[in-house]
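[agent] plan:
  1. take the single chain provided in the ticket
  2. run structure prediction with default settings
  3. attach structure tokens to the ticket
  4. add a short note for the reviewer (M.T.)
[agent] executing step 1
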Amino acid sequence: MQYRKLGKYGIKVSEIALGSWLTYGSAYGQERTIECIKKAYDLGINYFDTADVYGAGQTYPGAAEEVLGDILKDFPRSSYVLATKAFWPVGDGPNDRGLSRKHIIEQCNASLKRLNTDYVDIFYCHRYDPETPIEETLMALDDLVRQGKVLYVGVSEWSAVQIAEGVHTTDRLNLNPIAVNQPVYNMFNRYIEDEVMSTCHKNGIGLAVFSPLAQGVLTGKYRKDEAVPSDSRAADKDTKHHIERYLTDDNLDRVEKLKPIADDLGISLSQLALAWILQKEEISSVIIGATKPEQVEENCRASGIELTDDVMKTIEDILD
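[agent] step 2 finished; step 3 output follows
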């Protein structure tokens, strides 16, 4: 496993990170979850990503945090980077959502308890909150940093304009800066290349991207004109809506054209898709989701793969 700085900041994260969205604390059993997390740790993954709402689809808010905290307690706290988030509703009350000071402070404290830790390395604003002044949000996060409960401030799926507004606000008020942004990024969803990536790079903000395999489409498991595998996310009634937007004929045609490139390099299609992302110097880490330890092991092998300019150009021609 290779490691990269989080933007311009001193903390280093593994090129491959393990996320818990749609997996831990919900659809998959405790035994398999333990196997995946321990395999990730053994292979050098030091960045584990979760959120207060993960696991809520089938159980309750905080379920993924509880599972992750219970497993990670067996490892030295200084040996891994732990991230969580707040924004989405965790209850029916008017203050059970958003990025108000009240909600951020309450959710951070609740997350720390569920994660069985005194601090999180990264606390993300899970989305931008247009109903709360950005000064209120960033000042609340600054307080958490000063209290030692949060080490680095992050945002997720903020636009370039919103990120620039956040940078300006932290500079103006002398607050702890935004250190990392977590957007979706893969071969089929490249919107951050327009403005977000350059805005983050200009301000020294790291990029820890999620859904790098387009919800599994870039693994090659789905084939055009064939039924989806019965054990896949596309066949699960609770998760299939996340993947349907990627299951287009055009994308499946691109997958078929990408396979020979991976074969020629002696790597899997998943490894090719992850390595393609990691060729971008702006990327700090790629967050994978895995339900089997074998998937963790395969994806970790993408760390350190170098793709030549010719290979990158061939891939670009296919994607275009």
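[agent] step 4 note for reviewer: The chain has one domain: 3-219+280-305.
[agent] ticket updated
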